């Protein structure tokens, strides 16, 4: 019961952001729910071990008349190992991200190109052996994402989004050995309030 | 830096002489600020395309990068497509710059990014976004060293807080109804605080525009400028330590208990301590401001406040160094202004997004790719802060306490627990002049995973002659 109340609160709370006493926002912002699928092509040293990833996000967003937007997302990302990497038996590397950020929409018509920047925390779960050292623990690390996208209205309440993003998710900043990659995906948005 | 700080402080002082009194009205006086008509602002200072401030920020970075590469010949500024690609491949890292660079210079740099957007017509949040984009572009494109996450956080978060402070202060100085030499000095004075705004005012022809329209929001402010001596002791033995000339500047903008709701930095409190010898020039720079809040009146016109606040702290003397940015909740209470003994205070709890504290063990941990080390540990954490003033007739007693917990993210693994007490007694002696006595007790406990724990205390005493404005 408590969990369902919490989920309800988390779902409803962001909509109060529409009621901020800002001249941009008074009762005029649009809100939407989004579901996204994507692939990630890894970069750098991380790619030597984990070649690519895929996953999905669910999210909630607000679009203000001033062309700025707020976005929140969570999901699950799983990486596949590079065939040439020796990471022991059944290696796994997965992330549960929690991200918040902003968007700027260049246009607010049926076709909406935008810039986005997001940041938050990843719960990283990894299990593998590299150079004789075992990694088997969950970590909480900072994530960042910056990119571009295009939202296209399909029906009155449904839009499709295409997005390309650069991911820089921390793992070990001292080396550095981080989760970097280019993410590209497709999302479907359900508009809650116009 | 000391000259720049002193000049800036004197300009504010000149603009505010004769206003609220510190310790008596700084948290409580009636709000006599001015908010311009939105329509008027939109007609005379229309909001620019976001590509303009973003373009300005990138242009500024390119210009600074060119100076670093071709004038100063810095090796880390010898850019190439390969160096940029390498940064994208590596992602975030940390750097090994000094505390001043990381915790003081970067936020000031960020304040210029912020104000290029703010003076283009954007609010706090959008301008904060532009500062974050500007810093990101610098880190990934303008240095051959890996991008530093600590720089990005300090430049964008600290830059937004300091930037909005400077925007508000420069709005107090600007007056477009004036002309001649007065106008020149006002534009220069505002530009000292706010070079980003000065650039846009020059580009948009606002520096020579004369109009009777009042376009810039202001709020009442006031504070205390004090000169005197301090004595910083290593340990708690009051006999140790040398005397040092110093100056403090304590300024409050806005009225914390008078508005029903607040926009970012409708209220802020700025405190600076400058040393003239023996100690680092900038002893303290502490700033906090409201982002959002509500007031309630109770009983005999006493008031409660609940708000979200942002904080920036930079403290340095020969014994300790601390810096950081944080954001969190604050509660406040003040008694009725009619009471003969008046109390006003706030209590804050906030999350430190990036903090730093000096540590004897930090140099043991080199930043691997730079083969260099810091003298301080860095990381996130939490902060609690008390800020209270009790005033009766010509006597004011102020007490402040701040405690920081910084969990090492880069440096010697462990936790830094630091606190500083700052009780002060102030006696009004003649008109706006007052005498002040202050005692600062700093305590620190370093708890480390791989080294013996450290614990020590250090005190500082101050005697000052102050001018209330």
How would you sum up this structure, described in words?
The complex is a heterodimer of chains A (194) and B (469). Chain A is mostly beta strands and 194 residues long. Chain A has a single domain, classed as Beta Barrel (Porin). Chain A has two helices and eight strands. The longest helix of chain A is centred in the N-terminal third of the chain and has 11 residues, at 2-12. The model of chain A is unreliable at 20-26 (pLDDT under 50). With 469 residues, chain B is of the alpha+beta class. Chain B has two domains: 38-204, no CATH class; 220-468, monomeric porin ompg (Porin). In chain B, the strands form two sheets. In chain B, strands 1, 2, 3, 4, 5, 6, 7, 8, 11, 12, 13, 14, 15 and 16 form a 14-stranded mixed beta sheet that branches. Chain B has a two-stranded antiparallel ribbon with strand order 9-10. Chain B is globular and about 70 Å long. Mean pLDDT of chain B is 89; it is low at 1-29. Classes of the chains: A mainly beta (194), B alpha+beta (469). Chains A and B meet through strand 6, strand 7 and strand 8 of A and helix 4 and helix 6 of B.
Q: CATH homologous superfamily of the largest domain in chain B, by name?
A: monomeric porin ompg
Distance between the termini of chain B: 24 Å
Give the C-level CATH assignment of the largest domain in chain B.
Mainly Beta
Return Rg of chain B in Å.
Answer: 22 Å
How far is the N terminus from the C terminus of chain A? 31 Å
Output the number of helix runs of chain B. 9
Q: Largest inter-chain interface?
A: A-B, 27 and 27 residues
Biggest sheet descriptor of chain A: 8 strands, antiparallel, barrel
Assess the beta-strand content of chain B as a share of residues: 35-45%
Instruction: Identify the CATH class of chain A.
Output: Mainly Beta
> Helices and strands of chain A: which structural class?
mainly beta
**CATH architecture verdict of the largest domain in chain B:** Beta Barrel
